[in-house]
Structure prediction request, 1030 residues.
Amino acid sequence: MRNDDWKKVSRLVSKKSLWMVHFCTGCGAMEMPPVMTSRYDMERFGIAPMATPRQADVLLITGYLSIKTLKRVVQVYEQMRDPKYVIGFGSCTINGGMYWDSYNTIKDLSKYIPVDLYIAGCMPRPEAIMDAFLKLMEMIEKGEAIGWKKYHKYYDQYKRNQRMAFSYRLDEVQDIKEDDAK
Amino acid sequence: MVDLIALGEQILLLAGMVTLGFAIGMFFNGFARKVTARIHNRIGPPIYQGYIDVFKLFAKKTNISHGWIFDLAALFSVAGITLAFLFLPVAGFTLLSTEGDIFLILYLLAIPALGFALGAGASGNPNAAVGIMRALILMLAYELPLVMVVVAMMIHYNTTSLATLVQMQSGMHWAIFVPVFFIGAIIVDMALQGMLMEKPFDIAIAPHEIASGPMVEFGGKHLGALMLYKMMAIVVETTLFVDLFLGGGVVLSVSQYGWIAYVVNFLVWFALITLVFFLALLINAVFPRFRIEQALKFYWKYDALAALLILIWVFAGVSI
Amino acid sequence: MMAKELFPDAQEIRKGRIRIEVEPEKVGEIVKKLKDNGYDHFVMLSCIDWINDGQFELVYHMWSYEYREHVMISTRIPRDGGSMVTLRDLFPQIETYEREIHEMFGVDFIGNPRLGEFILEGWPHMPPMRKDFDTEKFVKDFYYKIPEVKEE
Amino acid sequence: MMKEFELFVGPNHPGVTGNMSYHLWVEGATIKKVETRVGYLHRGFEKLMEKRIWMQNVPLVCRICVPEPDVNEAAYSMAVEDLMGWEIPERAKYIRTIILELARLGAHLLTVGGIAASFGLYTIAQWGVGDRDYILDIFEQITGARVYHIYIWPGGVRWDLPKNAKELITKVLDYLEKRMPLYEDLLIRNKVFIRRAVGVGIVPKDKAIEWGVTGPNLRAAGYQLDFRKLEPYAAYDSVDFEVPYYPKLGEYEVLSDGSDIYTRTAIRLLEMKQSISIIRQALKEMPEGDVILKHPQWFAWKVPAGYSYVRVESSKGEYGYFVVSDGGKKPVRVHVRGPSYTHGINVLERIAPGMNIADFSPTAISLDVCPPDIER
Prediction:
């Protein structure tokens, strides 16, 4: 019980300090400067950009991800310390959005890394971003933002999907199936 | 028995002071961000943000280490800066400062930086290596004018102990009111800007150039320890300045006013270090950063030259 | 001298836009000649896939600040195994355009040492900008087939 | 000194603009060699455009350059108009001018802020982005969107300006004019900035044109060349404006031989002033009338076969659209020439060796390298 109480307090305080990785993965990064600066000022909520993934808690996938970026995103995500959270930003992270038929962008981010929260829109307004952060804080407080636990638990599946995407081939699927058969 | 109780009191006092130091340091983190935000036309984080950040970093679940040197480095930094704090006279509390002199403090200030360097070196990241090289060069740069002014003051006041220096300045005979040391204060303030790693001298952690330099591989609890070090360093370095030039914040004599003097002195000290830090923040907000060789040139050419003149002035004044 | 004077058979599309169609072997010579005659800004190098003709069209765009004239030098090379001599010595940016066209269309530029992966990484299929590469089909066959992460 | 090592600047690094990376080979603190790595933002626009009908491409093209999307819309629309042989209404030309100049103002604010931030002067960056937001507000009131406007269409602009547009825009311009002295005092006359920026990141003047440098970077190298003057589009031939170039830096001191970070910053600040004056003139002289051609339903568009190359002067340099049609409902090929293509790759790779690593990121940002228009 005491451990639970401690966790609650820890979450309650930690949600007030979310550091995000300074990584512009797509065009949604364009709305990040306004959110950081005088108009919207997200530092009010203790959210600050950080230079390296080691220091950060939140990974913002700002828009579409090409396969080449996905490799870096996975690396960045794995470098981050637990607990860590992912926000999918814009329609392109949900189903591909504008780029639904592009050969180089992934269509569904949650197949490759666990996503705690999506923001819809192309591109989402700063207000939507702020709202997402507030929602994420709420989720952290309630203990619902458990993407990082999922990543540990279903690591094999995420890795398999990532490998497929990196090689632009589905061949990996067969390997897994064979393994299952055994 | 009596000795034991006195020792216990002493230890309690020290522990209390260290806790207070860290608390003030964390407050300064929030304060700095708030002031900077106001200059940026923003509201800024709550003033207690520093406490939250440190708490969060220590609550992080995983810790990725790069070997025992890496682990030790953060501890090294915090321990070094804490020791430096203990050897400083703080608002009339002498703590351990009667034991050591000012050179000990300057040595102790170098220890955390070296610990920092060890840790960054152990992380094996080239950005960290470049950052640490810059940090060490910068340290070399600002220490020259700093030491020269300090030596000048020692000659003038004829003491090497910071506690004695503070005592001699009591009754508002602050060193900054002596014309020559007013210039000295400006010189040391410039050096302080480098010590605090504020612009134009935040060369070692330049995020746009080397992605926050030495801290690049630190995260979680390691980063938390590092932040504690940086926060404490603000307190130590500003206190050093206040002790040197502003009488350590001692305005009331303890023998005359008793415990009220402690409270008042403490408040004055706090106000003074906040003021010194505030000045540094203002300078920080309006300047870009130098390149490392420009910083070296600035310190050695202008700052050190002025410090040398002061040294000669004081030396001549004493010997004549 | 203006492009019209240098090459009488050049065709004026509209004011300030000249198009010259030449053999692949002559491109280097013409680009050099234009460069020496005031067409000093190399704009870009485009490639068009004329799949029905079985040819790639390479278009070298040049602009003269002096005459305010834009020249497109068009040349056609075979679609299968087509190659072209690199012109990277004339203008440095040609090298980059050649790298892109090599990756996106599969045109070989002889003498360019930096051909190779430029924009894509680990792309195992046909160069994607070719007309016979169906991006929609690829997406359906690949991205949509990647299984979702199943939670027990 | 340290031995040679490799350093990756980006893609996850504050010193790069957007998602790209530079691979540096460094010896001590001196750069030996640079390779620009791009492709992180490749979406295959040119492929997607071949799959869509002419009108459907308008929402696509604006996503090629995020800080300044309107130049893409304008260039693409002009290319289609060129092939169609359309002459757009006079009022639409003026509205395009206003939109393009507002976009230029916003992009320059962002770039100047970026240059300042790369030197650690975050105050300017914060102010710049904050002030840019007022311009986005105007966009929102005119077009309905903050970033991607999809307002400039083949045949004119989507709809007329709102009734109070003049007051709205004038108010923001007045505000920006009031803010300009602050930027100047804090940035261009800042002693430390001058120390850092003068004589750093030099693009050789005699090579500038050969290397394909365009836009403010070319003007900083001492050429008074601007495609708004050389090949006037929209209403640029009817408004009066100057093209600032080195060494005519107006009220700013000429401190170097040009073509360095300082001059590039100064040129951008001067261009912002010109933009404000252009918008004021355009607002004053704008005629009444239609804003879009009465053209057939856009599903049925068939664009005559032909080749068209159209260029506009963006805040970064020459933005060109090469559009090829075979007379069908979809383009055969749309090739985009982004200014960063040359600035970010062959220029930067050539000027960076010998540079201190501290100067690398400011140089890249002052060249205004925007990765999405390299790889598209």
In short: The beta strands of chain C are 11-14, 17-22, 41-50, 55-64, 69-78, 83-85, 108-110. Residues 92-105 of chain C form the longest helix (14 residues). Helices of chain C lie at 3-6, 27-36, 92-105, 135-141.
